[in-house]
Amino acid sequence: MKSRITKNLFFLVLMLTSDMAFGQSGQSGFSYFIYSLIGVAVLILLFLVVQVADNLLAVEAKSMGANDGKTNYSIFPRFSELFAPKTPGFVGDSSVTYLKQGHDILLEGSPEFTTIQEGTATIFAVQPPNFIGLAPIPKVLVEVGDEVKAGDPIFFDKKVAEVKFVAPVSGEVIAVNRGEKRSISEVVILADKEQKFKALPAFDLDKGSREELVAYLMENGAWPLFQQRPFNVVPAPGDVPRDIFISTFDSAPLAPDANIIVAGREATFQKGLDVLNQLTPGQVFLGLNAKGESAPSTAFTEAEGVEKHWFHGKHPAGNVGIQIHHLKPVGGQDKVWTLGVQEVITLGAMFAEGKYDGSRVVVVAGAEISEPKYVRTAIGAKVGDLVKDQSVAENVRYISGDVLSGRQKTADQFLNFHDDQLTVIAEGDYYELFGWLLPLAPRPSVSGTFPNFLFPDAQFKADTNTHGEKRAFVVTGQYEKVLPMDLYPQHLMKAILVNDFERMEGLGIYELAEEDVALCEFVCTSKQPLQQILREGLDTMREQS
């Protein structure tokens, strides 16, 4: 009772003291309150004026066509600009597109030396299934035993007779292999020791029309070098690309270095770019690597007649589809063409040297061979020939391309038309007891189960084991962490599975090719064949168009 009275007296004294203090300083306190309100109002007004001015700058830049989505026309710096990685010195004042999503897979088996050795392949093949949209049974123009020169036509699509597919080397046709339902799978050529080339007629780029140039390219075998987005198909003869895109670097595991490939062919590469400029009313875009330790080749940095853009990020930063998305996305009825560096060189050689140059620099890589190296060979080299001077481990898988998006081959098969990489890794046909519970062996992974992030430069010896079977297709958010595109890939895949055409189109299927979702397939907890699903969706949309 006594303590309660004491508490009440304390609060009463406190209240009286507060009233007296307010009475003595009421006038000054009221003034401070008014000044504070005025100050806040001025700050709010100033913020609104600056914000309106900032928005008007952006609107004016867009109306003048200056807003490309990359240049910052705002008064304020972007958050990404404040905390962007350090730009390499060789980039200079050029703007760089920084990609946050992605993942680099570092594998053992890259070449120790960058010198290019002469290849040991003697047998080559052109494979009609490599060309999406080509009829399964094209018209074959040669028979077994025929002699051909490099650049001689060997088959064409019966629906598009103008487009000729030519021999990459001179030699004897030793087989015309067939697949399911009598389809043509391979036209095989035993190469001559001394190569002979079909003499191509001269073409003046300055005087010839685009129509004449297109007819020249189709007749002399250059047309299949192009791949058209959407669908990643060989363009139709009447197609005109909005723009043409070339990526000068490949960020996939064990991929070849384009700087090595283009060395000594700089002038021919530039000639190919000159040809491309005659084929599009738009621009030829060149994607450059801003993440490398040294500057790219001068063939790329000093290229003329192109728009050069720098990209900095982990794989798939080198994919041309990613670069298209960040530069000028494919939408509506747009059609764009893409080429690799070596395809541009082949194109340039037709005009600079008057021949179809089907030679290729191929990297033979992987932990299961004795000497990973660069070799000079030709389009469609036989897999077994490329490794016949190597010690190859037992029970291996040959992959035409990289481990993420390449295709499985046997030693008796051939590299695909657009591939410049042969990867050899161990087969993963084993069962890992309690692998989901006790993942003991180190492996490339984005999972936190392995402390890979503590060893960013560590290289792994990979195999083909998926460490799990196909599971329920659950939403995980994993794809968005590795795909640097403003898309919802998981929703797109589910739309493809249910054949929802409108959702497929709305979710951006036209922007993708299989290689773009290969890393998503690698990280997929559900073990879904995303590349296969995407191809089925693209084929469905192509049939509907």
Fraction of residues in helix: 25-40%
Number of strands: 19
Largest sheet: 6 strands, mixed
Strand content: 15-25%
Q: Strands of the biggest beta sheet: in what spatial order?
A: 1-13-12-11-14-10
Q: Which structural class matches the secondary elements?
A: alpha/beta
Task: Please tally the helical runs, counting DSSP H or I stretches of 4 or more residues.
Answer: 14
State the low-pLDDT regions, or none: 1-25
Please tell me about this protein's structure.
The chain is α/β, with parallel strands linked by helices and 545 residues long. The protein has helices at 2-63, 79-82, 210-219, 258-262, 266-277, 298-301, 320-327, 341-352, 383-386, 478-482, 489-497, 501-506, 518-523, 530-544; strands at residues 96-98, 116-118, 123-126, 139-140, 147-148, 153-157, 160-166, 171-178, 184-191, 227-229, 244-247, 284-289, 307-312, 336-339, 359-365, 373-378, 396-400, 407-409, 421-426. Helix 5 crosses helix 8 (341-352). The longest helix is centred in the N-terminal third of the chain and has 62 residues, at 2-63. The radius of gyration is 30 Å and the shape is globular. The model is unreliable at 1-25 (pLDDT under 50).
